[in-house]
UniProtKB/TrEMBL annotation:
One protein family per Pfam: DUF4331
Record's protein name: DUF4331 domain-containing protein
Organism: Streptacidiphilus monticola
């Protein structure tokens, strides 16, 4: 969760495992959109001697669909190259790393950023771009903030890019949720909750962990159909769909006695992510790996899992007497039109006053962002359901509480939007894992790349 170790096969390949996708109109540069894709989940900060890094053998991509067919019209590709300056030392660094060109930094990565259009035409936007080192500790990386800032590269056309380690900004109580669907704030109401004396605050499983981020800031006109940007929320061209993917070469041969692989063939997708929690919670175990291998355009075959989510059926069982209206809805067999809209088609006009992020009839899991909605002056972490149209599920900001939003939606909160005769259960507004942005120790930034500085291994040794 959001998409950490979400499928059996990708859980064995963390370098290619996407964890979160964010897309939002940049609050400090409102004529741009920021796109962030995180990889390599659940990194302990103390990672030596082999610190975390992107895979040279992985093709990382951030995709944008601007015509609603679930296929990319704009794709940004990241390819990495690792450089080892002294192969005769076991050390990542042989002294303090004081700059991105520091001679004491032994193992570093650079990358090429390429833009590919809907016709496959590729344009290199940047080459030899430098990643920052991992945040090791006060002796090795004494001024990490300056190293990270130097790794924010300004490119032609008003673009910015960053690729490197950041603090995990997604907060979730994994330990409780996957313990038979327990939510600590409601644990005494659980079917098996007689062992608890009462509710308890949530525990952030991802606290003090890091991820590796691909972050882009690009002009809005670069992402929309025909370069549209006239500020009309109701215009179909206002909404884009965003997802990330990771691909590996089709063939891999382990070279005997060499300690390395040889790869060949076309790239094959092994991971993807659009909306948070979809493959994690909605797609069943036997189909998760297939889901990761397919494009959003093929998601119609998974739509029935969204229309009749397993978690919605479990909540009335796990919390007896708390969700009678949801239980009746489940037993009626009616498809969850609210969830289908939120996750697979976008929300049509007329459902939420003054808002839409509908992309058409194609059912595709994409993070949909209406770029005509300006950043909120006073953001609410519950986003659209709390009246903040600049937040999830209109795109996703780094601090949005997507766990609470999606849990409440599954529990029936949003069904009343599509069926006025339905009344959400009273317990719905209490549904949460009990966490918020204050659960993240390293604070978010108010500027690109928005996720906080990564935790260092000296002060955060547990892993």
């Amino acid at each position: 969760m959001s998409s950490h170790r979400e499928a059996p096969e990708i859980s064995k390949d963390p370098v290619a495992d996407s964890t979160d996708v964010y897309a939002f109109v940049s609050p400090d540069a409102c004529d741009t959109v920021t796109l962030i894709a995180n990889y390599i989940p659940l990194q302990g900060a103390a990672g030596g001697p082999n610190f975390y890094e992107f895979g040279d053998d992985v093709l990382y991509e951030i995709h944008v669909d601007n015509d609603g067919d679930g296929r990319a019209d704009v794709t940004f590709q990241f390819r990495f190259t690792t450089h080892v300056h002294n192969p005769e030392t076991f050390l990542y660094n042989t002294g303090p790393i004081t700059s991105l060109t520091s001679a004491s930094w032994n193992r570093r990565q650079t990358y090429t950023l390429t833009k590919v259009d809907a016709h496959g035409r590729a344009t290199v936007l940047g080459k030899g771009l430098t990643c920052p080192p991992c945040n090791i500790g006060p002796l090795s990386t004494p001024n990490y903030a300056s190293l990270a800032a130097a790794a924010v590269h300004k490119l032609a056309g008003g673009r910015k890019v960053f690729a490197g380690q950041r603090a995990e900004g997604f907060y979730v109580d994994l330990g409780s949720i996957f313990d038979l669907g327990n939510l600590r704030p409601l644990q005494n109401l659980h079917l098996l909750g007689n062992i608890f004396s009462g509710p308890a605050p949530g525990v952030n499983t991802t606290k003090e962990l890091n991820v590796h981020s691909l972050a882009l800031q690009v002009p809005i006109r670069e992402l929309t159909r025909g370069g549209w940007n006239n500020g009309d929320v109701n215009d179909p061209r206002a909404t884009i769909g965003v997802w990330t993917s990771a691909s590996r070469r089709q063939a891999r041969v382990i070279e005997r006695g060499q300690g390395k692989d040889a790869e060949s063939g076309p790239f094959v997708q092994v991971s993807r992510l659009g909306n948070p929690l979809v493959n994690e919670v909605v797609i069943p175990m036997g189909h998760k790996d297939q889901w990761n291998a397919l494009p959003p355009a093929d998601d119609k075959k998974f739509a029935h899992y969204v229309a009749h989510p397993e978690l919605a059926k479990l909540l009335p069982v796990l919390y007896p007497g708390q969700f009678p209206h949801l239980d009746a809805l489940n037993k009626s067999g009616k498809p969850r039109a609210d969830l289908l809209a939120i996750l697979l088609t976008g929300i049509p006009a007329g459902i939420v006053p003054g808002f839409q992020n509908h992309t058409g009839s194609t059912e595709a899991d994409m993070l949909r962002l209406n770029i005509a909605v300006p950043p909120a002056a006073k953001p609410n972490i519950l986003g659209l359901v709390a009246g903040d149209a600049a937040g999830f599920p209109n795109g996703r900001r780094v601090f949005d509480d997507v766990v609470t939003v999606e849990l409440r939606a599954v529990a029936g909160l949003t069904y009343a939007l599509v069926d006025k005769s339905f009344t959400p259960d009273a317990a719905v507004n209490a549904v949460t894992d009990g966490l918020g942005p204050d659960s993240v120790e390293n604070p978010y930034l108010d500027h690109f790349p928005y996720l906080g500085l990564p935790y260092d291994g000296y002060h955060h040794p547990a892993s």
